[in-house]
Design a protein that fits this description.
The complex is a heterotrimer. The model of chain B has no long low-confidence stretch (mean pLDDT about 85). Chain B has 4 helices and no strands. In chain B, about 65% of the residues lie in helices and about 0% in strands. Chain C has one domain. The chains are: A alpha/beta, B mainly alpha, C mainly alpha. At the B-C interface, helix 1, helix 3 and helix 4 of B face helix 3, helix 4, helix 5, helix 9 and helix 11 of C.
Chain lengths: ~400, ~110, ~300
C-alpha cells in the first residue's frame, strides 16, 4: 500500500529530462522547457528521461549511449525526430515532419509523450531500460600493490581501471602540478550542442583546447527571438535562471515592449555586467564579452540584433579558450551567434593526426553494428550528409 | 546534559538519518553507469590529482585573520568595561592587518594565480 | 524541564521552517519568473521521486566521506539552530559562547561542501568543491566580524544576552551594513544564487553533478535546513530574535526568520554571480574593510552613548 502511494506521489513531480540537442533543434527544445510539466536536468544523474531531439551525427552515437547508461534507474528514452539507427536500442520514437506551421502542435505532442512516459515510469508500468554498453571497466586493473598504484614510478598502473595524472607545467605560474585531460561534450548543457572539445585543465584553468567535433548546425536565424535565447543562456550561466526563464518566455511569445523593458531593467539591476571582466573573450571585430552581452541586452530595449563584421582567419577556440578560467570560458562559448561559433570551432586538419590515440581509454563497445562501423570519437569524417537541416 | 553531549547526540541523529536515506537507493551500479559525467566524453585519468589550488596564497592571509578571531572573542566581552583602551588596541591590531591586506592585494594574492 | 521544552520547540521550529523553506524555494523563483505559483505538492513529489531513484556510485568514489558530507552539513545546521533562544530561557543548547558555536558551524560547512564535491572522483564536482573553498573562507571571516559587532553591546558571546541587549534598539539599526554582509554569508553557506560557487550552472550542478536519487535528496535536505538555520541566526543577531509584543517569543522568532528566509531566496534569484577570482578579491578588498568599519562604528557609538 505504502509503496503504491509513494509511486502516485512521484508521478506528480515534473518529468526530469536530460536532453541531447541535435541539428536545428536548439531553439525549439529551449522553448519546450518553458512548460512547467517538464524540468531540464543539468546531468543525466538527475534525470529520469533521456530526450534525444533532432538528427545526430554518426560519431555522436557512442556518446549518446554513454549518457544513456549514466542515468539512474528507472529510466526511459524518447527519440524526438532523431535518427540514431539501433544505437539506443528499441527506444520510443516520436517523429514529425518539419513544417513551420505545425511546430506548436508537434511541441505539444512531445510534451504529452514526455509526461506520459514519466507517468508510466513512476507507476512501474514501464520497465526501466537496461544498459547499452558492456559492464566492464574502461581498462583492466594493472599495477603493483593493494590499490594498483605501483608500476613504473609512483604513477604507473591503472588503479580502478584508470591511470592517475602525471605532472606538467602550468600555463600561468609554471608550477608543475597535475593536468586533467578529458573530452568535454558533446552534450554538456553549458556547451553549444554537439561541440566536443578535448581540453587539458590545471585547477580550473584551461591549458589547451582542441575541437574534435564542431557544434551541430542550428537553424540560422538572426532575429530578436534568437538573440533573447542567447541572452537567456548567458543569464543561466551568471546564476540568474529566473531572468533566463523570463527571456525564454519573451522569446517564445509575442512580447509587449513593457515586458522587455522590465526584463532589461532587472538584468541591469542584477549586476551582471559587473560579473563580466572587461576584455574577456575579445575577438577582433566581435568586441569582448561585455560588448556582446550589452548588444544582446539592447534587444530588450527594442533595437535589433547587431550584425558584426567577418571573423579574422586566425580566430579559433583553440587559441581563445586556453588561459581562461572555467566559468569565463563557458560564458565566452555561449556569447557568439551560431554562425560565428561554427567559424570559431572548425576542426583543424593538422591537429587531427594525433587526435585518436586517447579513445582507447574510453568505452569502446560495438554491440550494435547497424550504424556503419564508425570510430566512436574523432570528428572529421562526418558532417557531409547534414546540410541545411531544419 | 552538557553542550558536548548534546552536540554529539545531534550529530549521531543526523548521521543515522542521512545514512538510512543514503542506503535506500543503493543498487550496484554497472561500469558504464559509473563513468564520471562529462557530457558524453571520456576522461584520460582519475579526477583526483595534485589539484592546482589557485588561491593558495590567499589561505595564508586567511590564517592570520583566523588567529585574530581568537583574540577578538574575549575582547568583545570586555569591550564596554575597558572602554577606550580596548578600542585603541583593536584599532591598532586591525590597522596592521589591513596593511597586510593592502600588501597582499599589491602582490596579487587575490588573483587566480 | 525547560531544556526538554526547548528541544521540542527546536523540532517544531525545524519542521515548520523546513516545510516553509521547501515551498518558498519553488514559489519565489516561479513568481519572479512570471509563472503561475506551483502547487505545494511539487516539492514533496520531487522528494518522493528522488527517493525511488537509484543512487549511482562513480568510479572508485570516497564512499565514506560521500555520505558523511550531507550528514555533517545537516548536523551543523541543526546545532547552529539549537543555540538560538526561543524565549528568555528557552534554549535547546544553552551556551555562553553561542557565537563561537555558530562560527564553528559556519567554518565546518566549508569542510562538508568540500567533502561532498571531493568524494565523487569526478571533474566537475571537484572544481566546484575547490572553488567553494576560495569563497567560503573569506565569507566566513566577514560574518564573524559582523557577529562580534553584534556581541559588543551585549558584553557577551551568548545569543540570549545578544537578544536582551536589543530591547532598546535592534542591531540592524546599529549596523545596517552588517545585516547585508551577514545575508551574503547566508547565501554562501546555504549554496544559493550569487554565492553558489559549489553547484553553479556552468559546472552542470558542480558538487551535485554526479549524485543521483536519495543522495541528491539528502544534500537538498541539508541545504534547505541550513537556510532555515542561517535565517534564524540572522533574525536573532540583527532583528531582536524572540523580542516582540503580545505574541509568544517563539512565534516572533518564526515570523522574523520567515522574513529573512524570503529575502534570502529573493536575493538568490535576482543577483548575478561574479567569477570566483573576482568575488574573492571583492570580499577581501572591499567587504572585509567595510566590516572593520562597521565594528568601529558600533564601538564608537558604545563608547559615546553606551
Amino acid at each position: 500500500m505504502a509503496v503504491s502511494a509513494l509511486k502516485r506521489w512521484a508521478g506528480k513531480a515534473p518529468a526530469s529530462v536530460f536532453v541531447a540537442i541535435g541539428e536545428g533543434m536548439r531553439e525549439r527544445v529551449e522553448r519546450l522547457f518553458a512548460d512547467p510539466r517538464i524540468e531540464r536536468a543539468a546531468t543525466p544523474r538527475h534525470a529520469a528521461i533521456f530526450l534525444i531531439a533532432g538528427p545526430m551525427r554518426l560519431e555522436d552515437r557512442e556518446d549518446l549511449r554513454r549518457l544513456h547508461d549514466q542515468m539512474p534507474h528507472p529510466r526511459a528514452t524518447l527519440l524526438w525526430a532523431a535518427e540514431v539507427g539501433e544505437a539506443l536500442g528499441d527506444a520510443e520514437k516520436l517523429n514529425f515532419t518539419l513544417q513551420p506551421a505545425d511546430t506548436s502542435r508537434a511541441d505539444e505532442a512531445a510534451l504529452d509523450r514526455l509526461t506520459r512516459i514519466w507517468a508510466e515510469l513512476s507507476d512501474g508500468e514501464r520497465p526501466s531500460e537496461p544498459d547499452l554498453l558492456h559492464d566492464e571497466p574502461p581498462n583492466p586493473w594493472q599495477g603493483i600493490g593493494p590499490h594498483g598504484q605501483g608500476g613504473k614510478g609512483m604513477m604507473g598502473g591503472t588503479p580502478y581501471g584508470r591511470p592517475m595524472a602525471m605532472t606538467a607545467d602550468d600555463l600561468r605560474d609554471g608550477l608543475a602540478l597535475d593536468p586533467y585531460t578529458a573530452r568535454f561534450g558533446p552534450f554538456l548543457p553549458m556547451f553549444p550542442p554537439g561541440l566536443l572539445l578535448e581540453m587539458t585543465l590545471q585547477g580550473d584553468v584551461i591549458q589547451s583546447a582542441k575541437v574534435l567535433r564542431p557544434p551541430l548546425p542550428q537553424a540560422a536565424r538572426d532575429d530578436a527571438s534568437a538573440a533573447l535565447l542567447r541572452l537567456a543562456r548567458l543569464l543561466d550561466l551568471l546564476g540568474l535562471p529566473v531572468l533566463g526563464h523570463r527571456a525564454r518566455l519573451a522569446a517564445a511569445g509575442d512580447r509587449p515592449s513593457s515586458t522587455l523593458e522590465t526584463l532589461g531593467r532587472a538584468i541591469r539591476w542584477s549586476g551582471s555586467t559587473l560579473a563580466i571582466r572587461p576584455g574577456l573573450g575579445a575577438v577582433e571585430g566581435q568586441g569582448d564579452l561585455r560588448t556582446r552581452f550589452d548588444d544582446l541586452l539592447a534587444v530588450t530595449g527594442g533595437s535589433s540584433a547587431e550584425t558584426r563584421p567577418e571573423l579574422p582567419e586566425s580566430a579559433h577556440l583553440s587559441s581563445l579558450l586556453p588561459g581562461l578560467e572555467w566559468s569565463e570560458a563557458m560564458l565566452v562559448l555561449n556569447s557568439f551567434d551560431d554562425e560565428t561559433l561554427s567559424a570559431l570551432a572548425v576542426v583543424k586538419e593538422d591537429e587531427d593526426k594525433d587526435g585518436h590515440d586517447h579513445e582507447g581509454s574510453g568505452y569502446m563497445h560495438h554491440e550494435h553494428h547497424g550504424h556503419g562501423g564508425h570510430q566512436g570519437d574523432g570528428g572529421h569524417d562526418h558532417h557531409a550528409g547534414h546540410g541545411g537541416g531544419a | 546534559m552538557d553542550l558536548v553531549t548534546k552536540i554529539i547526540v545531534i550529530c549521531a541523529v543526523s548521521a543515522l538519518a542521512i545514512f538510512a536515506l543514503w542506503r535506500t537507493g543503493a543498487k550496484d551500479a554497472t561500469a558504464p553507469q559509473q563513468l564520471p559525467y562529462l557530457g558524453g566524453g571520456t576522461p584520460d585519468t582519475h579526477a583526483w590529482q595534485r589539484y592546482h589550488v589557485r588561491y593558495y596564497s590567499m589561505t595564508l592571509l586567511f590564517i592570520a585573520f583566523e588567529m585574530e578571531m581568537m583574540f577578538m572573542y574575549p575582547w568583545a566581552v570586555v569591550f564596554v568595561e575597558e572602554g577606550g583602551k580596548a578600542m585603541m588596541e583593536m584599532g591598532m591590531f586591525l590597522a596592521i592587518l589591513s596593511i597586510g591586506i593592502v600588501y597582499a592585494w599589491r602582490e596579487g594574492v587575490f588573483r587566480w594565480q | 524541564m525547560t531544556t526538554f521544552l526547548a528541544a521540542l520547540l527546536l523540532i517544531l521550529f525545524l519542521s515548520v521552517g523546513f516545510a516553509g523553506a521547501a515551498v518558498a524555494d519553488r514559489a519565489i523563483p516561479a513568481f519572479l519568473a512570471g509563472q503561475t505559483a506551483p502547487s505545494w505538492r511539487l516539492s514533496l513529489a520531487d522528494a518522493v521521486r528522488l527517493l525511488q531513484t537509484q543512487r549511482i556510485r562513480t568510479e572508485a568514489p570516497d564512499a565514506l566521506l560521500w555520505w558523511l558530507a550531507p550528514a555533517l552539513y545537516l548536523a551543523l545546521a541543526i546545532v547552529g539552530l539549537a543555540v538560538i533562544p526561543f524565549g528568555q530561557d528557552l534554549v535547546a543548547i544553552p551556551s555562553e559562547v553561542g557565537i563561537v558555536v555558530w562560527g564553528s558551524c559556519e567554518a565546518l560547512t566549508i569542510v562538508a561542501v568540500f567533502m561532498f564535491g571531493w568524494s565523487a572522483n569526478a571533474p566537475l564536482a571537484l572544481i566546484g568543491a575547490y572553488r567553494y573553498v576560495a569563497i567560503g573562507l573569506p565569507a566566513m571571516l566577514l560574518s564573524m566580524f559582523v557577529l562580534i559587532g553584534a556581541a559588543l553591546p551585549a558584553e557577551s558571546l551568548g545569543f540570549i544576552e545578544i537578544v536582551e541587549a536589543q530591547r532598546t534598539v535592534w542591531n540592524v539599526v546599529r549596523q545596517p551594513a552588517g545585516l547585508i554582509l551577514f545575508l551574503m554569508l547566508g547565501l554562501a553557506i546555504s549554496l544559493r544564487g550569487p554565492f553558489d560557487y559549489a553547484s553553479p550552472e556552468d559546472l552542470a550542478g558542480g558538487v551535485t553533478a554526479d549524485v543521483s536519487g536519495p543522495g541528491l535528496l539528502a544534500w537538498k535536505i541539508a541545504r534547505l535546513t541550513m537556510l532555515v538555520s542561517v535565517s534564524a541566526v540572522t533574525a536573532t543577531a540583527f532583528l531582536g530574535g524572540y523580542l516582540g509584543p503580545i505574541l509568544p517569543g517563539f512565534v516572533w522568532l518564526l515570523l522574523k526568520t520567515a522574513v529573512v528566509l524570503l529575502v534570502l531566496i529573493w536575493a538568490g534569484s535576482v543577483f548575478a554571480r561574479m567569477p570566483p577570482a573576482r568575488m574573492m578579491s571583492v570580499i577581501w578588498t572591499m567587504l572585509l574593510p567595510l566590516s572593520f568599519l562597521m565594528l568601529l562604528v558600533v564601538g564608537v557609538e558604545l563608547l559615546l552613548w553606551g
